[in-house]
Write a structure and sequence with these properties.
single chain, about 230 residues, alpha/beta, nine-stranded mixed sheet, globular
């Protein structure tokens, strides 16, 4: 097994475990102070990873927002924002999405082998499309990122990606922010789906920090012996 980046999962959920609303458009779960904290985590990372569904439905830019943090990265010989990473089975991504058109940094799309050729054609000129296996293997993706110089990987969702990273044992740290309200919609997306997780009643995750950030709570969990590496 090859080396992989230190991997931080970052997520904000409602009190009942939802990432968004099913019926009211994009739901803002966090607050300004926590958004700034997340921006700091982005600035400290070499790459930011989201699933293809997040690109399709949320259309995120995935850039470091703070001009000061961008300048600090440049002064260290790094690009202003981290490499953007996604993974897809079918390759049905819009090359006009903000993931691709915003920022001058590298964009990596890990794609299932059967969709590789058509995805390379579709995203020609806007991203590097990489064979992720048949089916997609996140261990392979993680190891390939390491060979490309990614030492700290920030995973920002969505729920399917969080589930896959956690069940595969590829996460070193979880930063889980809890918003002070309920969503109450069974059809809304959840933090994780069904799966066999390494942490259970018999093997509890280690709670490393609890922090109040205005009206939300940050819970930091150590998920591997590598917790806290920089």
């Amino acid at each position: 097994m090859g080396e992989r980046p230190y991997t931080l999962l970052s997520c904000c959920m409602s009190l009942d475990g939802y990432l968004d609303s099913a019926s009211h458009g994009r739901l803002q779960l966090s607050n300004a102070a926590d958004f700034d904290r997340v921006d700091g985590e982005r600035a400290a990372s070499d790459a930011i990873f989201v699933g293809a569904a997040t690109i399709r439905y949320d259309n995120p830019r995935l850039l470091v927002r703070s001009a000061t943090r961008r300048a600090d990265r440049v002064s260290q010989g790094r690009p202003p924002s981290p490499v953007k990473v996604t993974v897809t089975r079918a390759g049905d991504l819009d090359p006009r999405a903000q993931f691709f058109v915003n920022g001058d940094g590298e964009k990596l799309v890990y794609c299932a082998r059967e969709a590789l050729a058509r995805t390379r054609t579709r995203l020609d000129g806007v991203a590097t499309v990489v064979d992720a296996g048949a089916p997609v293997e996140l261990q392979r993706v993680s190891e390939d990122l390491h060979t490309r110089g990614v030492r700290r990987l920030m995973v920002e969702g969505g729920g399917a990606v969080h589930t896959q990273m956690l069940t595969a044992g590829l996460a070193d740290e979880l930063q889980l922010v809890v918003a002070p309200f309920f969503v109450g919609e069974a059809a809304a997306p959840r933090f994780v789906g069904d799966g066999v997780f390494p942490w259970s009643v018999a093997r509890r995750a280690t709670l490393a920090e609890v922090r109040q950030i205005d009206d939300v709570a940050l819970l930091r969990y150590a998920l591997s012996p590598r917790f806290g590496e920089r």
